[in-house]
C-alpha cells in the first residue's frame, strides 16, 4: 500500500512551487504584453499618433495566464496523484490512507482558488476592461453562471445525493420567482422578507410534487416530474388574474442595498457611500448576492451530507430496500430531499426576479430544466466542485463562442460563429459522454469527518495489514 | 448411548425448551400474494429467543418472500406476525426495523458507492451512533476482513466481503433478531465456512437469535437448532435440525445433489 504511493517529489508538486511556476508564466506574459498589447496608437485631433496605455488589459491578461497555469498544474497534479494511487489489478484493496493523498490535498486547494476567483471577479473584470461600465458584460456573465451554479447545487440535492431524477426542477425556480414578484408588487414586501418566503413556497411545492411520486423511481419519476414542470408553466400562462398570463409580471421592485436603493438621488447608494453614481453598482451587488446564495447552498449541502439526513439521502440513492430495512423512513427522506432542493430553486428564482425586474412563463420552459440537469449530470452526480465546473462550461462556454469574431478572418465575412454555438456545444457534450461518461468529477468523497476516519484508519487498518 | 445420540437428545431438549418459552417471532397462518399469485400459503413458523432457526427450500419456494413478508413488504394478506409480543403484520418496513429486527437481505444490498465505514454507520442509524465505536469494534472482531477495508468502497469488495458487510451492517443496529437471507449465495466454500462460523459464534457467544433462510440445506441444518422446509409456499416439514438431516425425503430432495429429485431428474445434463 505504502509502496504504491509516490513521494511528493514526483507528480504532486507543493502549492508554493505551483504558485512560483505560475508567477513565472505571468511574468513572461507581461514581457510579451508590453511590446504587443500595452499601448494602442490612435490618431489624435492634430493627426499625430497618440499612445494610449492599456495597463488594465495587460494586468487582466497576466492574471488570466496566472490563473490558468495554476489550474492546469492543479489538474495535472491531481491526475498524477490519482494515477499513482490507482491500485494494480493484483491489489484488491483501494488505497486506505491515514493521511489525505495528494489528489485530496490538491482538491482542497482548488476550492479556495475557485472561491477566491469568484470573490475577485468584479475587481478583475474592472481592471481588465478599464472601467466599471465596460465590465458590465463580464459581471453579468458571472451572475448568469452563478445562478446556474446555485440551481445546479440545489438540484444536486435531489438528483445527485438522493438519486431522484427530477426533470421539472425549473418549476421551483418559477415558484420562487413568482412568489417574489407577487409578494413584492402586491404587498410591497422587501426582497429580504420575500426571499425566505419564496424558499418556503418552493419547498411546499417540492413536497406537493414529492407526495404523489413517492413510489416512483427512475424513468417513471422522470416523466412525472417533467409533467409537473409543464403543469406549473401552463398554470402560470393561464391563470391570468394572478400571474398576468403570458405577459408576465413587470416592474418588480429592483434590488436595494439592504434598504438603500441604487439610484442617482440623494438617498441612493452612491450618495450615501460617497461614490459617483454608476448603474453598475447594482450589478456588482447582485453578483455578490448570488455568490452568497450559491455559497449558502453549498455550505448547507456539505453540512447535511455529514448529518444523518444527508447520509440517508445517499443510502437512498444506493439502495432503497436496504435503506428501509435499516429503519430509515424513506418517505420523509425523499420529501426532505425534494423540499430542500426546491427551496434553493426558489431562492434562485426570487434572485432571478429581482435581477430581471420582469418575469414571464417563457423563462421557465423545459430547456431550463434540461440545462440544470445537464449541469448536475456533467459535473458528476453528487460532486459540488464538478457541478460548479460544469455550470461554468455549460453557461460560460456558449457565451465564449460569441467572441470568436476572429474566425471571420479565416472563413470570410459571412461567417457568424455564434450560429455554430449550439453545434460546438453538442459536440462537446458528445465528447464528454465518450471520455468522461460518469461526469467531470465522478469520485465520491466519503462524508465521514477526516479526523474520525483517520483515527479508525490509523488504529485498525495498520493493525490489519501488519 | 453414542455421542451422536446424545447430541440428538441435547438438541431435542433445547428445541423443547425453546418451544416452551414464548417465541420471539411467530408467524401464524400467513399467506402472501404477488398480484393474484400465491407466494406463501398458511405458513406457520416460530423462532424462540437464543435459537438459530433455518428455513430451507428450493428456488422459488417462497423463502425470500417469507423473509420480506416478516419485514412488511409484501404485506401478509392473511394471518399474523408477532415479534416480542407485538403484532407487526400491518407495520411498515422501517417501523419493523425500529423494533430491533435486522436483516441481511437477499443479494446483500450493501451501499456500493459508500465506504465500508459509512455502510456500518448507516447500520447504526437507529441508535444515532450512540454505541457506534463499541459496535464497530465488535463487528471488526467478528469479521477481521472488514477491519482492513473500512475506507474501501463497498461495491469494490468481493462477494464474500460484501456478505460479511451486510451481516455486520445488520448487527450495528443491535438487533434482538437477525434475519439472514441466503448468506452463502454465490460464495466459495471456504468463505461460506467462515461466514457460517461467524453466525455460530454470534449465537453461542452473544446469544443472538437468528433466522436463516438458505438453499444450502446441509450447511444450514448443520448450523441451526431447528429447521423448516418450504415447498411451493407451504411448510411441509419442521423439526430439530438433526432429525431433518436424517430424514430420507430431505436427504433425497436437498442433500444429495443439492436439488429436489424431480428437478434433478428433469434437468438436462450440464444445465
UniProtKB/TrEMBL annotation, chain A:
Keyword field contains Cell membrane: yes
Keywords of the record: Cell membrane, Membrane, Transmembrane, Transmembrane helix
GO MF terms, alphabetically ordered: branched-chain amino acid transmembrane transporter activity
Membrane topology category: Multi-pass membrane protein
Pfam families in the record: BPD_transp_2, DUF3382
Coiled coil: none
Membrane-spanning residues: 22-39, 51-71, 109-131, 137-157, 189-208, 220-240, 285-304, 335-358, 370-397
Intracellular or extracellular location(s): Cell membrane
CC annotations in GO: plasma membrane
Residue ranges occupied by any High-affinity branched-chain amino acid transport system permease LivHM N-terminal domain in the UniProt entry: 18-119
Top-level taxon of origin: Bacteria
PANTHER family membership: HIGH-AFFINITY BRANCHED-CHAIN AMINO ACID TRANSPORT SYSTEM PERMEASE, HIGH-AFFINITY BRANCHED-CHAIN AMINO ACID TRANSPORT SYSTEM PERMEASE PROTEIN LIVM
Designated name of the protein: High-affinity branched-chain amino acid ABC transporter permease LivM
Organism of provenance: Methylobacterium planeticum
From TrEMBL, chain B:
Entry keyword Nucleotide-binding: yes
Keywords: Amino-acid transport, ATP-binding, Nucleotide-binding, Transport
All copies of domain ABC transporter, residue ranges: 25-257
Molecular function terms from GO: ATP binding; ATP hydrolysis activity; branched-chain amino acid transmembrane transporter activity
CDD domains given in the database record: ABC_TM1139_LivF_branched
Any Pfam family hit: ABC_tran
InterPro entries cross-referenced by the UniProt entry: AAA+_ATPase (IPR003593), ABC_branched_ATPase_LivF/BraG (IPR030660), ABC_transporter-like_ATP-bd (IPR003439), ABC_transporter-like_CS (IPR017871), BCAA_Transport_ATP-bd_LivF (IPR052156), P-loop_NTPase (IPR027417)
BP terms from Gene Ontology: L-amino acid transport
Record field: transmembrane: none
Gene3D superfamilies the record matches: P-loop containing nucleotide triphosphate hydrolases
Keyword Nucleotide-binding: yes
Family of the protein in this entry: Belongs to the ABC transporter superfamily.
Protein name: ABC transporter ATP-binding protein
Organism whose genome encodes this protein: Methylobacterium planeticum
Amino acid at each position: 500500500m505504502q509502496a504504491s504511493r509516490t513521494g511528493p517529489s514526483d507528480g504532486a508538486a507543493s502549492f508554493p512551487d505551483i504558485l512560483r511556476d505560475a508567477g513565472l508564466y505571468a511574468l513572461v506574459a507581461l514581457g510579451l504584453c508590453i511590446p504587443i498589447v500595452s499601448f494602442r496608437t490612435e490618431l489624435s485631433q492634430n493627426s499625430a499618433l497618440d499612445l494610449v496605455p492599456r495597463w488594465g488589459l495587460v494586468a487582466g491578461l497576466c492574471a488570466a495566464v496566472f490563473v490558468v497555469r495554476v489550474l492546469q498544474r492543479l489538474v495535472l497534479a491531481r491526475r498524477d496523484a490519482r494515477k499513482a494511487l490507482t491500485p494494480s489489478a493484483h491489489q484488491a484493496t483501494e488505497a486506505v490512507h491515514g493521511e489525505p493523498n495528494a489528489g485530496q490535498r490538491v482538491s482542497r486547494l482548488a476550492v479556495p482558488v475557485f472561491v477566491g476567483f469568484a470573490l475577485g471577479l468584479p475587481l478583475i473584470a474592472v481592471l481588465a476592461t478599464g472601467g466599471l461600465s465596460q465590465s458590465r458584460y463580464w459581471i453579468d456573465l458571472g451572475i448568469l453562471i452563478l445562478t446556474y451554479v446555485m440551481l445546479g447545487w440545489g438540484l444536486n440535492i435531489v438528483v445527485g445525493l438522493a438519486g431522484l431524477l427530477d426533470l421539472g426542477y425549473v418549476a421551483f425556480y418559477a415558484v420562487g420567482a413568482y412568489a417574489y414578484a407577487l409578494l413584492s408588487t402586491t404587498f410591497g414586501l422587501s426582497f429580504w422578507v420575500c426571499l425566505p418566503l419564496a424558499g418556503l413556497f418552493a419547498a411546499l411545492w417540492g413536497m406537493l410534487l414529492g407526495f404523489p411520486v413517492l413510489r416512483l423511481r427512475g424513468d417513471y419519476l422522470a416523466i412525472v416530474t417533467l409533467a409537473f414542470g409543464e403543469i406549473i408553466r401552463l398554470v402560470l400562462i393561464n391563470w391570468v388574474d394572478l400571474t398576468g398570463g403570458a405577459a408576465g409580471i413587470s416592474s418588480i421592485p429592483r434590488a436595494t442595498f439592504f434598504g438603500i436603493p441604487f439610484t442617482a438621488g440623494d438617498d441612493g447608494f452612491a450618495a450615501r457611500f460617497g461614490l459617483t453614481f454608476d448603474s453598475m453598482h447594482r450589478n456588482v451587488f447582485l453578483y455578490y448576492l448570488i455568490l452568497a446564495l450559491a455559497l449558502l447552498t453549498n455550505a448547507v449541502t456539505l453540512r447535511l451530507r455529514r448529518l444523518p439526513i444527508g447520509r440517508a439521502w445517499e443510502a437512498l440513492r444506493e439502495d432503497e430496500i436496504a435503506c428501509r430495512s435499516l429503519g430509515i423512513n424513506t418517505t420523509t427522506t425523499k420529501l426532505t430531499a425534494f423540499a430542500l432542493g426546491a427551496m434553493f430553486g426558489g431562492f434562485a428564482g426570487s434572485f432571478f426576479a429581482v435581477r430581471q425586474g420582469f418575469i414571464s412563463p417563457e423563462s421557465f420552459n423545459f430547456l431550463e430544466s434540461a440545462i440544470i440537469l445537464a449541469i448536475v449530470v456533467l459535473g458528476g452526480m453528487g460532486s459540488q466542485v464538478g457541478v460548479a465546473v460544469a455550470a461554468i462550461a455549460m453557461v460560460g462556454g456558449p457565451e465564449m463562442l460569441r467572441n470568436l469574431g476572429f474566425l471571420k478572418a479565416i472563413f470570410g465575412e459571412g461567417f457568424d460563429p455564434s450560429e455554430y454555438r449550439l453545434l460546438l456545444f453538442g459536440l462537446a457534450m458528445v465528447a464528454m459522454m465518450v471520455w468522461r461518461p460518469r461526469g467531470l468529477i465522478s469520485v465520491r468523497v466519503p462524508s465521514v469527518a477526516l479526523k474520525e476516519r483517520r483515527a479508525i484508519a490509523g488504529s485498525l487498518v495498520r493493525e490489519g495489514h501488519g | 448411548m453414542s455421542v451422536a445420540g446424545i447430541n440428538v437428545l441435547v438438541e431435542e431438549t433445547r428445541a423443547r425448551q425453546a418451544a416452551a418459552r414464548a417465541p420471539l417471532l411467530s408467524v401464524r397462518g400467513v399467506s402472501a400474494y404477488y398480484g393474484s399469485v400465491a407466494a406463501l400459503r398458511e405458513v406457520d413458523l416460530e423462532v424462540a429467543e437464543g435459537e438459530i432457526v433455518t428455513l430451507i427450500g428450493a428456488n422459488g419456494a417462497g423463502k425470500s418472500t417469507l423473509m420480506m413478508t416478516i419485514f412488511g413488504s409484501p404485506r401478509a394478506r392473511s394471518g399474523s406476525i408477532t415479534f416480542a409480543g407485538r403484532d407487526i403484520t400491518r407495520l411498515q418496513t422501517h417501523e419493523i426495523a425500529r423494533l430491533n429486527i435486522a436483516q441481511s437481505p437477499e443479494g446483500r444490498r450493501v451501499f456500493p458507492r459508500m465506504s465500508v465505514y459509512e455502510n456500518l454507520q448507516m447500520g447504526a442509524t437507529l441508535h444515532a451512533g450512540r454505541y457506534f465505536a463499541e459496535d464497530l469494534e465488535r463487528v471488526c472482531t467478528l469479521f477481521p476482513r472488514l477491519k482492513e477495508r473500512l475506507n474501501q468502497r463497498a461495491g469494490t469488495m468481493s462477494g464474500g466481503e460484501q456478505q460479511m458487510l451486510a451481516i455486520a451492517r445488520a448487527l450495528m443496529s443491535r438487533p434482538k433478531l437477525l434475519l439472514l437471507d441466503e448468506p452463502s449465495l454465490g460464495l466459495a466454500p471456504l468463505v461460506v465456512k467462515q461466514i457460517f462460523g461467524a453466525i455460530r459464534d454470534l449465537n453461542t457467544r452473544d446469544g443472538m437469535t437468528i433466522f436463516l433462510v438458505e438453499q444450502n440445506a446441509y450447511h444450514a441444518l448443520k448450523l441451526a437448532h431447528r429447521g423448516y422446509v418450504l415447498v411451493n409456499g407451504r411448510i411441509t416439514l419442521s423439526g430439530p435440525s438433526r432429525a431433518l438431516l436424517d430424514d430420507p425425503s430431505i436427504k433425497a430432495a436437498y442433500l444429495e445433489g443439492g436439488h429436489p429429485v424431480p428437478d434433478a431428474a428433469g434437468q438436462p445434463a450440464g444445465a
